[in-house]
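User: Could you write out the 3D structure of this protein bound to nicotinamide-adenine-dinucleotide? I've included everything you need below.
Assistant: Certainly. Input first, then the structure.
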Amino acid sequence: MGRLEQQVALVTGAGAGIGLAIARCFAAEGAFVHVADIDGAAAERAAEAISRAGGNAVGVSADVSRGQDVTAMFRAAEKSHGRIDVLVNNAGLNVRSDFRHLTDDDWERIREVNLDGAMRVARDGFGLLRASGKGSLINLSSIMASRGLRQLAAYSVTKGAVSALTRTLAVEYAPFGIRVNALAPGFIETALTERVLRNPAINRALLDRTPLRRFGTPDDVARAALFFASDDSAFVTGAELAVDGGMSAGL
Ligand SMILES: NC(=O)c1ccc[n+]([C@@H]2O[C@H](COP(=O)([O-])OP(=O)(O)OC[C@H]3O[C@@H](n4cnc5c(N)ncnc54)[C@H](O)[C@@H]3O)[C@@H](O)[C@H]2O)c1
């Protein structure tokens, strides 16, 4: 407790799943959290629940694929604290499709949110991270950034780009005291993976390839995010941490 005392955090896509767990975890550690989500009502609910639990949070309606939403999101954060110490680029989505049937619309939507959104948040959040003096930017990549599974081409391409963006920004933002790292979760039980994990054959096949023999929880990822957010990782930048039960270590 208290590892993020006096810190200001902003988490995108924090109305549900991994982002919600990160927002809760950061608030429990003492941070003020801007809880942003395309689903404004979910963001509000999450912020209220955090406040009821004794934390400090505010809900923000923001679609990271819309430039004007991101501008308004950061303007509100600037007004309230004038800085962001921890910025989590978490908003993301997936549409599974055999590559040969992938529609232009699906490709564009996945790219707009997972990649263009992450780029925009990392770029437009720079000033507020610099104002922190020791900002931490955390990007949600995926083990799929460096592996292949059928029907995940578009998703994997965007996550591969997020990993590349992380390394580049680690170098470019370092002179401003900003560390940039990525989390690469494996299979975490959220709405994003619900359908695929409900399929018994796929579920078993994935578990067979997970040395720790279970799927991850959003809290598993939140605790790894806390490492990148806190001074415990003060000398860590440009790193990618797999949170996957050992899946990417195996064959
Ligand atoms: N669940 C997994 O197994 C897994 C694995 C690797 C990486 N990830 C990554 O973690 C992140 C969170 O995934 P999750 O499993 O919690 O997903 P989720 O679907 O449970 O939650 C995603 C949240 O993001 C919000 N969102 C969607 N589009 C948005 C947009 N355009 N702007 C703002 N908010 C938006 C949704 O409303 C939702 O609240 C994503 O980037 C995902 O790619 C997840």
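The pocket of nicotinamide-adenine-dinucleotide is lined by residues 12-13, 15-19, 37-39, 42, 62-65, 90-93, 113, 117, 140, 142, 185, 187-188, 190-193 (CB under 6 Å).
User: Perfect, thank you.
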